Amino acid sequence: MSETILVPLTQFDQSYLESLSVTNGRVFQSLDIDALRAAVFRVVDKWRLLAGYVEWSNTLSKWCIRVPLQGDVSSRFTFTTSKIATRLHPSFVVNEQDPAHISTRPPLQYFRHESVPHDLQTYNSSRSPLFSVHVTELLNCTCVGLTIPHGVFDGGGAYQISHAVTQELQGKLWDPPAISQSNILQEALDDLELAPSMYNDIHQETVTYSALRRYFVPESVINKTTFLGRALYEHARHHVETKAVYLGPKAIVKLRREAKGDLQSSEVPSVSMNNVLAAWFFKVMYANETDDNVIALWSYTSIRQTLSKKYPALMDYSHNAIVVQPITPFTKEELRKKSLKELAVLHRKALEPAGEIAWVQAYNTYLKKALRGHLTFRRSGDEPWLYTNQVITGLDKADFGSKLYAVWFWTTPTPYEIDHVVAINKFKDGYVIQANAKATRWRAVAEAVEDLNVPDTRL
Fold it and tell me: Using CA of residue 381, residue 385, residue 248, residue 235, what is the dihedral sign?
């Protein structure tokens, strides 16, 4: 057996995600740091993929992970700590006493060491570990950040890592995902590419692909510069803020009732809480805007479950397996006129095609031939948003042996994060919606939160 194997990635890992890293942060009451460090070591030692390093294969023309099958892994993860003699302000944590509450994201330095790379190119040149943990002890809490390159792992992979650490801390058994020199997602995509075309819904195909062509551009130096320059402009001109809305059980009941409307339950199309929360957030965020700009909402969704119908092993796939699904763009006036129920149904219907293997086959063909790497592009008058349901990451399920005060995440290509990004996470019995949005929109959300906090005598 060779001491190392090469694990190839796919084009799904190289659609701009190769330029990003993700930090999943949690705020705990306290923490046994030595126990956490020992648990991380055992996870990396058992799941050897995490001990690997990024390598470019000229033969395959793609990024890969060089995985050591033997040897000590002490140097193959980063574990850093710091102590700061200050208290974390209450505005940085979730207030579970209110039905709904807005909190502000804490400084990144509490959760991520400055030496951790952002992009695969730097991970490659520095041979940096794939998995980094940073712990900051404050006077009233402990912050923990788990950082991974987005060009290697998506939310599903992040959950697997977090779950493994939790299991080790609790002394429970867990099985690492299988490691192979062949990429099981690539094998499935290649198989579908060789199969006869299965997709016949011309309307949905036209909607999806015309939206892809309109809102995404090839990943070139010029487009990257324009893309990041726009993010910088939004931060400087519109005072982009990263905050989160906590919606507790009472607020969730109110929103469910509003989404259901006056129709009988049998007449209401089935919508998930993910659909309702996406609809609510965008509706209230734009409540006070009257210009003619067009809103385009793109939802990320995993294709693991879809492809596992034919390729069962993909349910445990660790790398990127996400696609973007568009809701038909609408003006701000149209957004105001639609009910919460109507918007939730639109969001559900936009995600439905990705549940069919035939659609994934068509999407993969288009991505491979037309886009390869791609970035969102903002024409004058367009406001595209990226929305991701991160409940799958299990941020709230990480039991590190202490009370959980808050969950946060960062995607970090530059000191200025990309704006127009919204993510939902589960938090205990409620949900947290985190977004990078300009200050005026957060004021609109605050007005909606006040309404949710008005006591409802029916609850």
Answer: negative
